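Job type: complex structure
Entries:
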Amino acid sequence: MKTGKKDTLSEFCRALKRHKRFLLACHVAPEGDAIGSLLAVDSLLRRLGKKTLIVNEDAFPERLPCLSAKGWHLHSEVQKPGNFDAALLTDCPTLERIGRVRELLGPGTVIFNVDHHISNNFFGHHNYVKPKASATGEVVFDLFKQCKLPLTREDAKNIYVAIATDTGSFKYGTTTAEAHKIAAVLMAKDIDIEKINDQIYSSYSLNKMQLYSRLLGRVQTTALGRIAWVGMHLEDLKQSGATHEDTEGFIDFLRSLREVSVVFFMSEMRPGEVKVSFRAKGAYDVNRIATEFGGGGHRKASGCSVRATLAETQERIFDVIRRHYPSLWL
Ligand SMILES: [Mn+2]
């Protein structure tokens, strides 16, 4: 069976119904959209009578207590590959994004790709990818509609978290009218949005706050303030007692600087390996920049990993920004 087929919504749902046992996975370092979408699609498939198993390389993140970690298995706990005739992946632009879960896919596993990344390479046998959608959660909402399954309160919460986290609470330019319409439908399911939002946004540990304080004290800008960046050393985590997971969302502080067009946050994952997040405002496209390093994402939000020191990574990023956007310095 060839990969790369772009399905219509109805073709995609018809194909889903032809399979029995699904492995479900999302990308490594999973966040709200990946997980919320995954949990909602799990519920959908189960109600269609399918057997499902959620398997991921990374643990369920602590910062999302509003979502249920029940049924989340680690790749390392699942011994045998096979036993699945299909796999469905959420929020992954490429198959590589599921990390070591790939080892569980057999040559006969039919892969379903549900995503909204503009950089998606249609790695599945069936691909339902909607780059206009603000979140994969919106795409999963389509699946429920197409399958004529009413949303439970839990489904509504999962999809709400997916869309709210990927749109910065309906603030980013990627937020569509459709996202608001869907949110209205979800709210009609009586979800507690105050509690959900407090759990997502007002739940810093003191260690995390102290890490942010260190990082904010070192923000640098150039090109008349149009570019801002900061690098985090492993030592920063050690000194503050925070974790890598705590850095999720830090980039929003950089983005909140008034003059910036392009911002990036570099975190040292281990010596010689740096993870970079980019955000853009206005006409700038940071997907183009991340792609140069083998990463990707969206026009206004993207990321990549670089095998280098923080200082080398910074140099290389500036080379790429200068090449793509020399006018930033004018
Ligand atoms: Mn997403």
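Summary: The mean pLDDT is 95. The chain is about 35% helix and 20% strand.
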